[in-house]
Design goal:
With about 280 residues, this protein is of the alpha/beta class. The chain contains eleven helices and seven strands. The chain has two domains: about 180 residues, 3-Layer(aba) Sandwich (Rossmann fold); about 55 residues. The protein has a five-stranded parallel sheet, with helices on both faces. Strand 2, helix 3 and strand 3 form a beta-alpha-beta unit. Helix 1 crosses helix 2. It is globular.
Length: about 280
Amino acid sequence: MIQFSRTQKHYIDNGASKRNRLKLLAKKAANSSIDSKHPHMYIFSPAGLGKTYTVGDALKESGIKHFTISGNQSMFAFGIGLATIQFLNKNEEKIVIVVDDCDEILKNSANINIMKNVLEGYKTYSYEKSLQAQLPNLSDIQVSAIEHFSSPEKMGFSVPTDNLVFIFTSNFQLPTDDDVKVQREKGTQKAVLYGHLNAIRSRCRTADFDLCDNDTWGWIADCILNEDVCDLEDQDKIILLDWMFNNWDKLNERSIRTVQKMCETMIEDPTGYRDSWEIDYLKF
């Protein structure tokens, strides 16, 4: 019977500790007062670790009303999501918005300036363009939401966000003050964008899970062993995770989804799965 080594158990404990910290941070952000100076949270870690799943699980446990919106879409689509949520929130309850993947909504200065006002200051999402071309593509409830937050005097729509707490889960790390300084001293084109992204950092509490390889494996292992994400017996999970640990540097992908795919191979081919793993997941 294969068992984890003492070293592997150490990394699994590290991964469990970090995943538990993520859950606690999510609950803390969700339970923070909407009037606190920094109610919002920005969470970074490498891709494929199930951040959004873990945050959502923590929010379910706490009973907090929450919704998940993709941040990898146009600012218009992002605004439609906020408008619909707020339109249906007749009692203006506090709601937690989990923003999954921020690539698009934080891709340029214009988008970031909109998000600054969403998080702080005016606490409003504003879209200031004509809606005529977009309306035919929206559902009835989306159109009703837009009409509710529109004004005859202005193009577009404005959605109040003063009752919303945002938790961002992202695969990219917001630049620190020092990062911005370095870019400005170098005179790079990134300097302006870094400055704007740093302003988002200043408006949120941040949790940077910048993991080493062993702790990344430990995080994945803890999730596989303790969450319902892999349909294997415990001994088979250990076999799979041990193989992944010993081949970590040669793997061409490293994520919870990778383990789930390897799990499917193990179930489909219980005698030849190792050969398939080598072909499918190792670099040659």
